[in-house]
Amino acid sequence: MVVVMRPGASLEEIEGVCEVIHRHELESLLMPGSVMAIGIPSAIPTDLRDPLEQRIQILPGVSKVTQVSRSYKLASREFRPDSTIVEIGDVRFGGPEVVVMAGPCSIESYDQLKRSAQIVKASGATVLRGGAFKPRTSPYAFQGLADEGLRIMKRVGHEVGIKTISEVMSPDMVGLVADHVDILQIGARSMQNFPLLIEAGKSRHPVMLKRGPSATIDEFMLAAEYLLAHGNSKVLLCERGVHPLDRTYTRNTLDLSAVPVLKEISHLPVIVDPSHGVGVAKYVPTMACAAIASGADGLMVEVHPNPREALSDAAQALSPEAFESMMQKLAVFAEVSGRLCTPKRVGP
Ligand code: PEP
Ligand code: MN
Fold first, then answer.
1. Measured from the CB, is residue 183 less than 6 Å from ligand 1?
2. 266, β-bridge pairs
3. Pair 147, 23 in one domain
């Protein structure tokens, strides 16, 4: 249930609503926005729903009371009508600007990451990506530099002046990864790792949750709900492609129809990862532009200083030149979509 207050409702009026909620041994959650909304996140016994709604409806300062019909609540737009803006320093997800996160699939060395950071920042990306703990299908494939990779990421982020994101795969690593990067990435294969979601929720560190390759939209939303229900409001949703019908030409099927759906049913910012979505570098810029046109709030793109030498996901990594050219194109799509995406020009 969500109680929407009238514009300018007083503190006493807000407290009056909370008091009635607490009297029924229910929790209240204040959600400031263009108007104050008060949510009741836990399940309300069926026989209490209507009487409680009627009781609250007549309280001073109350504009309307709505019942949330979906299985996920905190993540739904019914619960919070205003779009959430996730702010990480001067990077704002969910506002008019399209945020671009870019960098290599894996952190391979200090030099490789530093070079990547300089390249992506010069072209307008504001978040550097790079995996230190890599979820690889084969146990014989490069598994990442682990702790050493995180230390490199932290150092490069500070030296270059760019925010950072890296994947966390297990609940016991949440604290360690959060100490080294600005955003925790929960990978597609971990979307339903519930102990990880709980720990990342409790950490209250910004999280980008990737959609599982076979997850329905509702399963995705319920996974996000875990993060929110455990206290984390800084959650980004990321579409990264679902299992394809045909792997001949692309690695996954980038489900861009999920973007307008997620924007409608949830208040959380939506990111698209066209790199894992298609898995082929030459198709990434086209799908990045399409993602902006579909309403995405941000992109995650793999870029490597020398794609042929990449230790993971080499086929989908953009070269510095391809990334720069993609950023120029994105600005055009952003403008016609009523968004901002300002590529920085390299050189004078
Ligand atoms: C990645 O971002 O490098 C990654 C492993 O992504 P996903 O979880 O989407 O496969
Ligand atoms: Mn990758």
1. no
2. 76
3. no
Domain ranges, residue 41 = 2-66
The total number of structural domains in the chain stands at: 2
315-321 own/partner pairs: CB under 8 Å, 24+ apart: 315/279, 315/280, 315/281, 316/105, 316/251, 316/275, 316/276, 316/278, 316/279, 316/280, 316/281, 316/284, 317/104, 317/105, 317/275, 317/281, 318/275, 318/281, 318/284, 318/285, 319/281, 320/119, 320/123
CB 51 within 8 A of CB 67: no
Rounded to whole angstroms, the Cα distance separating 262 from 269 reads 9
pLDDT at 108 over 70: yes
Cβ within 8 Å of residue 43, ≥6 positions away: none
What token pair was written down for 265?
A: 């049913």
Domain CATH number, residue 55? 3.30.70
- 172 and 214 share a domain? yes
Domain C-terminal end among 66, 95, 112: 66
Is residue 231 in contact with ligand 1, taking CB distance under 6 Å?
Answer: no
CA 119 to chain CA centroid, Å, is: 23
Q: Indicate if the pLDDT at residue 347 is higher than 80.
A: no
Pocket test for ligand 1, best of 185, 186, 253, 303 (most atoms within 8 A of CB): 185
Residues 274 and 291: beta-carbon distance below 8 Å: yes
Say whether both 134 and 201 belong to one domain: yes
Mean pLDDT in residue range 221-242: 96
Q: Which ligand is nearest to the CA of 279?
A: 2
Q: How far is the CA of 15 from the centre of ligand 1 (A)?
A: 44
Q: Examine the pLDDT at 153 and tell me if it is beyond 80.
A: yes
Least confident of 27-41, 43-57, 125-139: 27-41
Check whether residue 57 and residue 95 sit in a common domain.
no
pLDDT of residue 41: 82
For the stretch 83-107, pLDDT in tens is: 999 999 999 999 999 999 999 999 9
